[in-house]
Design a protein that fits this description.
This protein is mainly beta and 484 residues long. 7% of the residues lie in helices and 38% in strands. The chain has one domain: Methylamine Dehydrogenase, Chain H. It contains six helices and 35 strands. The strands form ten sheets. Strands 4-3-2-35 form a four-stranded antiparallel beta sheet, with no helix packed on it. Strands 5-7-8-9 form a four-stranded antiparallel beta sheet. Strand 33 and strand 34 form a beta hairpin. The longest helix has 7 residues. It is globular.
């Protein structure tokens, strides 16, 4: 069958096809948070021009406002991705990747944006009221993934009262709610991110914590009561929607957030980044078994730091995002508190090799006069502050998005606005940023691009905070492939 003469879904047939033949990104859709909760325009989606041939390169060219306060937009996802790719000359309906889905962590609203009519100016085409989720006793929607059957699945983290729970809410292609996904009485304690691999009949999910706890920020009292936060990864039968294995990662794996299977759908293995204590675990399916094994493969030691007149405290790196290149060769992790971004060669996934490191701010920079680093097991000297185009970067490296060819890594600075306000108040005051890292895909290594900076400090309604990023044509963190 000649695929050129047949209908096919969006995306690419394989990860390597996307890497080799996908277009260079020209637009970067960025979830943007308004930290001033009294500002009526609220959170918005920023459209950033990332075409180096454009006169508006590295500038925000459009803002799609929610015009509602208290949303806390966080992650986004597509209505269709490469799991919907197929070749069929008799197809009655061909999926299109034309809607970007933006769940709101705090309001439980879900915003659906039309990105096809004018990709440079997305517009909200549907709003799903938070009462829809509450009617199914779920709240705090997080990760959105499209499914091969055309439905959209969103992970949730709380029940209607904000207590910790895990489930997934389903919508059809017209965004009618179909109810929750998990079947049976067994559920994980917490929810957060997820990734599926139908070839092995498996889905993995991670854990953050109770919405009523994390929504108010983070403080020392949280360390006294860890029961409201997660430390496990959970495996489900994809076909039956049932939980069959839970792996407890312990304190080393406290707050496991972003979880990724390898892009190759025939590799039943992946990584999870554990935030607070800055560890990365590798998980792999056992031979001749549905169960998985798991081991710690990256361990970033905490630093003993004294802030002002406060008592010294151990500061973990906070790995709040990880990303894999489409050829499954490189793993990138952020250290939001320590301030560095790292690249690892994972040709041998059980023994990642550090191949690149860049400091993009953080809490221990040399110019911070009220900070003393009393013990650092990795660095001899505190890192210099990062300055691009005369602007000192506040905050640390947070969400990442990698170009399809793996050569450009975009990095934003905001984690979650209540946590931003506690840990990086200057970033909230001055606004966040997006910077660009050039990647050596042949030998490994990274270099800061001095000519690219998106500054969110002078936005129309005050400084704002950029979080997660997407490309119109799909990207390294949203597309899931089915095995041929």
């Amino acid at each position: 069958m000649d695929s050129k003469n047949c209908c096919h879904g969006p995306g690419y047939p394989t990860p390597l096809d996307a890497m080799k033949n996908g277009p260079r990104e020209k637009l970067l859709y960025t979830v943007t948070i308004q930290p001033n909760l009294e500002e009526a325009h609220g959170d918005y989606l920023s459209t950033v021009d990332v075409d180096p041939e454009s006169p508006t390169y590295s500038q925000i060219i459009h803002r799609t406002f929610t015009n509602r306060t208290g949303n806390e937009l966080h992650h986004s996802g597509w209505n269709a991705c490469s799991s919907c790719y197929y070749v069929d000359k008799n197809a009655k309906r061909v999926p299109k990747r034309d809607k970007l889905v933006l769940p709101a962590l705090n309001s439980d609203f879900i915003y659906v944006l039309d990105v096809a009519s004018d990709p440079r100016k997305p517009e909200i085409c549907k709003e799903i009221d938070g009462s829809v989720l509450k009617s199914h006793n779920v709240t705090a929607p997080h990760t959105t993934h499209c499914l091969a059957d055309g439905n959209i699945m969103i992970s949730i983290m709380g029940d209607a009262e904000g207590n910790a729970t895990c489930d997934f809410i389903l919508f059809d292609s017209e965004f009618n709610c179909l109810g929750t996904w998990i079947k049976g009485d067994k559920k994980p304690y917490c929810g957060y991110d997820f990734w599926y691999q139908p070839y092995f009949d498996v889905m993995v999910s991670s854990e953050w914590g109770a919405p009523k706890k994390f929504r108010r920020g983070w403080d020392d009292d949280d360390l006294k009561d860890l029961t409201q936060y997660g430390c496990r990864i959970n495996f489900f039968k994809w076909s039956t929607h049932t939980l069959y294995q839970t792996i407890d990662l312990g304190l080393d794996g406290f707050t496991p957030l972003e979880v990724r299977f390898m892009h190759d759908p025939k590799r039943p293995e992946g990584f999870v980044g554990c935030c607070l204590n800055a560890k990365v675990f590798y998980f792999k399916k056992k031979p001749d078994s549905d169960e998985f094994t798991c081991k710690k493969v990256i361990d970033v030691p905490s630093k003993l730091v004294k802030f002002g007149d406060n008592k010294p405290q151990h500061i973990g790196g906070m790995v709040s995002d990880i990303i894999l290149s489409l050829d499954d060769r490189y793993l990138y992790i952020n250290l939001w508190r320590h301030g560095d971004l790292r690249q690892y060669d994972i040709t041998d996934p059980e023994n990642p090799k550090l191949t690149g490191q860049i400091f993009l701010g953080g809490a221990i920079c040399k110019d911070l006069t009220d900070v003393q680093v009393l013990e650092d097991k990795e660095l001899k000297d505190r890192p210099e502050p990062c300055v691009i185009k005369g602007r000192r970067l506040e905050g640390g490296p947070q969400m990442m998005q990698l170009s399809l060819d793996g050569k450009r890594l975009y990095v934003s600075s905001s984690l979650f606005s209540p946590w931003d306000k506690m840990m990086y108040p200057k970033m909230v005051e001055k606004g966040g940023h997006i910077c660009l890292i050039d990647v050596d895909v042949e030998n490994g290594g990274m270099k800061l691009n001095e000519n690219f900076l998106v500054d969110f400090g002078k936005e129309p309604y005050g400084p704002t905070l950029p979080h997660e990023m997407r490309y119109p044509g799909g990207d390294c963190t949203s597309d899931i492939w089915l095995a041929n």
